[in-house]
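Chapter summary example: a protein plus zinc ion.
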Amino acid sequence: MIQISPDKVAERFMRYVQIDTQSDPTSETHPTTEKQKDLSKMLCRELLGMGITDATTDEFGYVYATIFGNSDKKNIPAICFCAHVDTAPDCSGTSVKPILHRYYDGTDIVLPDDATQVLTTKDSPYLKEHINHALITASGLTLLGADDKSGVATIMEAALYFMQNPAVKHGDIKVLFTPDEEVGQGTAKVDMKKLGAKFGYTLDGGDAGSLEDETFSADGATITISGVIVHPGYAKDKLVNALKIAGAVLDALPKTEWSPETTSAREGFVHPVAVNGISEKATLQFIVRDFTVAGLQKHHERLKKIAEDVVAGFSGATMEYAIKEQYRNMKEILDLHPQVVAYAEEAIQRAGLTIKKESIRGGTDGSRFSYIGMPCPNIFTGMQNIHSKLEWIGTKDMAKAAKTIVHLCMIWEEKG
Ligand SMILES: [Zn+2]
């Protein structure tokens, strides 16, 4: 029986959320905000304090540490557990005041610093799973930062468990904390060689039991339209305005399908994100999303055809269509190493939970890790209503996540 107390994880979590670690999408430095290092340094000190002697943090704000294997088996791969220290730029993360609601009774929770912020079971039905248990909210002025300090806290608690229970057998366990995940830079400066892990898991998911092994595959597409430019005073029957053609292309896109605002679940889409230009030349930028590369290809062909048909109606105008790969569905890599997801499923079940398999309509650090040598699905921590003032988390979910980590390491050892 693995003993991990929800109260202890909660205490740890509440300490971490009070440190402001908001990242900044407009910054060009690494990390994007210096203050993220405040938490990284603290985590490094705490890991050293547990007796994890190789814990280090670098100038970019990453934390690396190893819990060395204690098993006689020699072929157990090194497994990484990863969480991000930063919080989302969408909502303030300054002076977060976490509130522990020790015995949640199912009634509305009015946040004390802004009475318009009310958590209800109607809007957040998952609250019902936590009646008579403890949960944590912010105070109404900031986000809570459960995304992803709950991941940080559960990994730290699991690390402490291994250091205090040397009889529990495991291979090398790598701890990794990253900056700037929320601004898409979480893997920008990571040193995969220094990390030295074969497989990984991010702790950055929602409901207890959820396991995400699939993300979008993503491309950018740029349509460049060239018109015909002539002095406007003498342009009759000669001038062709690229801006008007760009407008016509946008207008020719379907109105009731094939867009972020009209799709869900496993449907892909194209989405115009920027229009630039002058009357001579205009560019349209799109993001293109699907769960398969074949699906992406179909979207490109359809978009290109729509644009070509529009441009063909303007004599003398020409266009170019360029594709830029952005990221790929982690499932294509994970399917080559089925044990990574299978062991996570087994660990979640051993922790007493039912598995909820989910697909992410976006990318994660895990999708990037999967393509730079570390296949890496995502595991729950319990976080809810992320990136908002109504963010909350149940303490029993965090304890279950920490137990899932411990079980996972034991399973890798058993099968090794
Ligand atoms: Zn996150």
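Key point: The first strand starts at residue 56 and ends at 57.
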